[in-house]
Amino acid sequence: GAADKGGWSSFMAKEVSEEPEAVANTLRGRSHDGVVTIPELEGLDDLFAGINRVIIVACGTASYAGMTAKYAFEQWTRIPVEVELAHEFRYRDPVIGPSTLVVSISQSGETMDTLMAVKFAREGGAKTVSICNTQGATIPRESDAIVYTHAGPEVAVASTKAFVAQITALYLLALHVSQVRGSQSKLAIADALRELEAIPAKISQILEREQAHIEQFAGWMADTRSVLFLGRHVGYPIALEGALKLKEISYIHAEGFAAGELKHGPIALIEPGQPVFVIVPSPRESAEMHKKVVSSIQEIRARGARVIVVAEEGDAAVLPYADEVLRIPLAGRLYEPLLAVVPLHIFAMGLATAKGLDVDQPRNLAKSVTVE
Ligand code: G6P
C-alpha cells in the first residue's frame, strides 16, 4: 500500500531516495580509525591470504556492481579479478581450485543462476564469499563467508539502492583483503575509507540538485526509441547499468558501450537526434582519459548525436558539446561510479513515469529469478 512507500509515488522512487543511506548503512560498523573491521570476516585471514585469483559471479545489475568493483579490487589487492555472468560461469569448465576466491553478488540471495554458480565453485574446491542484501538467504548459507549489504528491503523489480550498496560492500571486501595481505599501506586504506564515508552526502547532493532537472528532460524524451550510453574504465559498467535500467522499466531499446569501442562499431548507429549519455571521467583524476572521452563526444556530436553528459562539477571542457549536463560532485576516480549511476537511475525512472508505466512492476520481469 501507499503507506509502505512512505509517501513516495513508487517503491523505486523511495529506493532511489535511499541510495545515500544504503551506502552509509553498508559502511557502518565496518571500520575504525582508518582500519577495516568487518566482523563477519574475522578469523578468515588464512582464507584471504591463500588466494591468487578472484572470480566475481552475478546476474543483471549485480553483475555490473561486480564489473565496477573489479577495478578497485585489482588496484588495491593486486590479485587478478574476473567478472562472469553466473549462468555462463559453470558451463565453460572454468579453471578453479582452493586458491580461487569466488565472490557472488545477489540482492535477493535467491537467484538460481547465481546459487548454482556458487555450488559449482564449492564443488571445484574454491573459496566462496557472498555479497547479499537479504539475511539468511540461500546463497549466503551456501558460502564460506558473507558480507551483507545493508540497503534495507528492495521492493521495486529494478535494482537501485542495492547496486550502490553492493559496490560499497565489494570495496570494503577489497580493502579487507588488502589489509590482510599487506598490499596497501595503512594510509592508503584510511584514505579509501574516507572517500567512501564521503559518498552518502555526495549522493544526497545529486538528488537535491539534479533530480528535478533530470525528471524534466526525461519527460521530454518520452517518445525516444533508442538511447545509447558510453563510459570508459569504471564508467563503462555504469553505462551498461544505465542502459539496463532503461530497458527494464521504460521498454526503450538501450545499449551501453565502452567509449573506446565507439570507432570499432557503435558509431555506425549515430544519426541526427540519437540521444547518447556519456559518463565523463574527472579531468583532475585522469587528464588523459578525460581527453579521450571528450574527443569521443566530439565525434558523435559531429554526426548529430544529442549528447547528455554526466560530468563532475567544474568540468567546463564538456560544455561546448553537450545538450544536457548532469553534474556530480568531485570524487576519486574509483568512487565516481557511486555518483555517476544516480542520475541514470533517476533518468530511467523519470522516463518510465512520463510514459505512464508501472516502474515498480515492469512487464515480463521478476524481482528474483528462482529458476535457471
Ligand atoms: C532479476 C532482477 C534484476 C536483478 C537480477 C539479479 O533479473 O530483475 O533487477 O539485477 O535479477 O538479482 P539478485 O537478487 O541476484 O541481485
Secondary structure topology:
Layout lengths: L10 H7 L1 H9 L3 E2 L2 E2 L8 H5 L3 E6 L1 H18 L3 E5 H4 L10 E7 L5 H12 L3 E6 L5 H4 L3 E4 L12 H21 L4 H35 L5 E6 L3 H16 L2 E6 L16 E5 L7 H16 L3 E7 L11 E5 L7 H19 L18
Parallel strand pairs: 3-4, 3-5, 5-6, 6-7, 8-9, 8-10, 10-11, 11-12
Antiparallel strand pairs: 1-2
The protein binds 6-O-phosphono-alpha-D-glucopyranose (G6P).
Note the main attributes of this structure.
single chain; 372 residues; five-stranded parallel sheet; 12 strands; globular
Description:
This protein has 372 residues and is α/β, with parallel strands linked by helices. 45% of the residues lie in helices and 16% in strands. It has twelve helices and twelve strands. The strands form three sheets. A five-stranded parallel beta sheet has the order 4-3-5-6-7, sandwiched between helices. The chain has a five-stranded parallel beta sheet with strand order 9-8-10-11-12, sandwiched between helices. β8 (226-231), α10 (235-250) and β9 (253-258) form a beta-alpha-beta unit. α4 runs antiparallel to α10, α9 (186-220) runs parallel beside α12 (336-354) and α10 (235-250) packs parallel to α12. Bound molecules: 6-O-phosphono-alpha-D-glucopyranose (G6P).
Tally of individual helices:
12
Taken in chain order, the helices and strands follow as: HHEEHEHEHEHEHEHHEHEEHEEH
Major sheet, described briefly?
A: 5 strands, parallel
**Helix content class:** 40-55%
SS elements, strand count: 12
Assembly status: single chain
> Structural class, judged by helices and strands?
alpha/beta
